[in-house]
Amino acid sequence: MKKIMKNAVCSVMVLTLAVSMTACQKNQSSGVSKVKVGTGNAMPPYCSLDDKGEPVGYDVAVLKEIDKRLDKYEFDIQAMDFNTLIVSIDSGALDVLSHQLVKSDARKEKYLFPEQYYCLSPMSLCVKKDSGIQSLADMAGKSINQSPTSYEYSMLMAYNEKNPGKELKINAVSDLSTADGFKQVSNGQVDASLTYQSTYDSVQKELKLDNLALTDVVMVEDTYIMCAKGKDDLNTAIDGALKEMVKDGTLSKIATEYLGQDVFSNYADMVSITAK
């Protein structure tokens, strides 16, 4: 009886191993490579979790569309907090990261980026209602706070270089919360704060500072999908897919669905103030 049971167990183990090897061979023979893709879990409407714990949002929709277009790759999309994303791509646990990232010099030294951006993020100025400030041109000689390690700081510095005699006074500040930045604008310590519409609405909902206003869009960030070093072929494939998606209007459709506007048509001509 024991011998029969032992033979049965061995047979099951052999069968399981055979199935596993067949599946592995099938994946290899098909030429499809599995790609571990990370995105955020708390940044709506770009990347967050639905009520079932599944990743959703603009970034996720873009990644799924790229996956459909790349026959040689299969994306495994995982959502996690931002710090975990960075640690994971650095350790090799992720091949690709999508979290509305800008192509900063520091990041370009460590990672690969497609040529084509996958989203545009419009930014406006939070100002006092009676300031008369409506654009960056109105900020000549006026002050604005910005962290010196941020990409936005580099963008503002690039603006100053392109506009001699009309420079902004950029205060290099660190660890200043958005709410505290708005308060400084409200009490006159600084003339403006660079921010997003959604951020302004969210913070003002809590602060209720009635002497503040938001200008029209003054600057646009181009954001990119990021690949781990060594993933050159994958990076090139993603770039090709994104270029197709811009050309055929797919990215515009996804942006309209998730962001409420076609950021590509509305702001493509504003992607000229970029940090070098």
Written description of the protein model:
The chain is of the alpha+beta class and 276 residues long. 43% of the residues lie in helices and 23% in strands. It contains 10 helices and 13 strands. The chain has helices spanning 2-30, 58-69, 82-91, 105-110, 151-162, 178-186, 197-207, 232-247, 250-259, 263-267; strands at residues 33-39, 42-43, 47-49, 55-56, 73-79, 96-101, 111-112, 119-128, 143-146, 169-172, 193-195, 212-214, 219-228. The strands form 3 sheets. Strands 1, 5, 6, 7, 8, 11, 12 and 13 form an 8-stranded mixed sheet that branches. It is elongated and about 65 Å long. The relative contact order is 0.16. Mean pLDDT is 88; it is low at 1-28. InterPro entries: Solute-binding_3/MltF_N. Pfam families: SBP_bac_3. It comes from Lacrimispora amygdalina. Residues 1-25 form the signal peptide. Keywords: Signal.
Brief overview:
The protein is an alpha+beta fold and 276 residues long. It is 43% helix and 23% strand.
